[in-house]
TrEMBL record, chain A:
InterPro entries: Anti-sigma_ant (IPR003658), STAS_dom (IPR002645), STAS_dom_sf (IPR036513). SUPFAM superfamilies: SpoIIaa-like. It comes from the Bacteria. It comes from Cereibacter johrii. Gene3D superfamilies: STAS domain (3.30.750.24). This is Anti-sigma factor antagonist. Belongs to the anti-sigma-factor antagonist family. It holds the Pfam family STAS.
UniProtKB/TrEMBL annotation, chain B:
Residues 18-137 form the Histidine kinase/HSP90-like ATPase domain. Pfam families: HATPase_c_2 (PF13581). The keyword Transferase applies. InterPro entries: Anti-sigma-factor_SerPK (IPR050267), HATPase_C_sf (IPR036890), HATPase_dom (IPR003594). One of its GO terms (molecular function) is kinase activity. This is Serine/threonine-protein kinase RsbW. It comes from Cereibacter johrii.
Amino acid sequence: MDLEAEVRGDLLVVRVQQERIDAAAAIEFKDRMRELVDTPAPRVLLDLSRVTFLDSSGLGAVVAVMKLLGPDRRLELAALGPVVRKVFRLTRMDRVFTIHERVSDAL
Amino acid sequence: MPSDGGPASASYRLRLDSRPLAVRAALAELADCPPLRALPSEDRDAAQILLAEILNNCTEHAYAGRSGPVEVALDLRRGQLSCEVADRGRPMPAARPGLPCPVLSLREGGFGWMLIRALAEELRYCHENGVNRLSFRVARTCLAAPDPCPCPRSAIPPESGCESAPRCCEGRTCSD
């Protein structure tokens, strides 16, 4: 799972460099994210602009990362493609996460 | 092997292995097959999500991580996509009261279940001669979840987001 992390102010921006967060990738995604969020930024932004597909396992992994951050740190999302947006909407997770149109909107 | 057909009708058959990487490759192939390509993009997205959830169900529940054959049949007629997925794994548990069919070895309230319920119509299941056969149609206009939901924003599911995902409500009422 190719993830690229960069600190920008109080924000840790993690760009997912892979097209799919699916059942075959979910565990690895979660494990890599666990390593990356060791960086003590109060906000973590997941840049999903390269992700064209996310299934229920991928969504479960994103939720697990949010829980990993605990109550004092926030996981935000940016640049959701149509399929990813649909999955968040139909499961109502779009109400749980702060979702930005573009990464620049979160800065 | 795609069969021919105009934009309004097309069929496609695919046989795959149940392991996750084979499922991923199959989904990529299905996303680009004639019946899906003929759909408007919203419906095509819905079909991809549904097929992913149904095939993941074969992997995780029917075969419980083992390798096994899965067959997918897609038929587009008059803009309506019908799908059938067959496997030779464990049968699904008996249907629960009030549910149309027992797809739902998927945990109730889990994300997979929510997606299938929102996107599929006429979901049917049978187990015959050692074969699980699940058929469904892709809902043409995905009206699911249009309304504000009265569930508290804090209703975040526990481990991996299952079990107690907001149990609402198809946009109507909230039981919790």
